[in-house]
Structure formats: C-alpha cells, structure tokens
C-alpha cells in the first residue's frame, strides 16, 4: 500500500499498475469519480487521469493499518487540465480505504468531495478573475 502511494506520486502508469492485483477493484464514492475493476482497465485509464491532473501529489495526513486493511487520510494536489483551458490548481482532502493481498492493493475505495474540485475550478472561471 505504501508502494502504491509512492507510485502514484511518480506519475508512472506502469509503476502504479504494478502495485495492484489482476482483479483490483477501484471504487470512487464521489459522483464525479468513475469506478472500475481489473488491473488492465486501471492501467488503461491511468494516462488520461495523470494527464488531467498534472503534477499529481498525494500527501499522507494519517495512516491506520489493521491486518490486510488500511485507511489513509490524504491531501491531493495537482494542476487540473480541462479541455484546452488553462490548468487550475486543485487541493482536495480525502480518504482511501484499502484491502491488500499478497503485498498488492486488491481494492481501493476513494472518498473525496468532487464539489470541492468543482468550486476551485469555478473560482478560476468566475468573471473578473
């Protein structure tokens, strides 16, 4: 799980995908997120996600581990790229809930508030800014 977080911060799709199981379940609880199942599907989506969130960085605020389960409170920062518009700095806090199997992440549930990101992009788009 710590290797997974470190890989996310590298921005390297292959390194990130190597940290998850073949049957990895990636659940997003935000209405703005998209869940998926499978390492191959996850790997396929990573380049677009990483391009949309340039300079992606997860900072661990708190870590709780219980056997094969973990919860990580994080702060995610990036420069969000939007359809040719200027990049917008985003800063959002959330929580990952993990299940680990054989040293790899088997499941991740991501709890974050998509409205925080929407408000940050709207503030940049507001007239007069």
Automatic annotation (TrEMBL):
Transmembrane segments: none annotated. Keywords: Isomerase. It comes from the Bacteria. One of its GO terms (molecular function) is isomerase activity. It comes from Trujillonella endophytica. This is Ketosteroid isomerase-related protein. Residues 2-106 form the SnoaL-like domain.
């Amino acid at each position: 799980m710590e290797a997974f977080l470190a890989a996310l911060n590298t921005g390297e799709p292959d390194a990130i995908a190597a940290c998850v199981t073949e049957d990895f379940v990636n659940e997003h609880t935000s209405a703005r997120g998209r869940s998926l199942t499978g390492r191959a599907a996850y790997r396929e989506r990573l380049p677009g996600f990483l391009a949309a969130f340039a300079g992606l960085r997860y900072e661990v605020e708190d870590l709780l581990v219980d056997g094969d389960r973990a919860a990580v409170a994080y702060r995610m920062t990036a420069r969000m790229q939007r359809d040719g518009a200027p990049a917008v700095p985003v800063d959002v806090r959330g929580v990952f809930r993990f299940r680990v199997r054989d040293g790899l992440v088997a499941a991740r549930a991501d709890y974050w508030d998509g409205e925080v990101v929407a408000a940050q992009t709207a503030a940049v788009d507001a007239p007069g800014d």
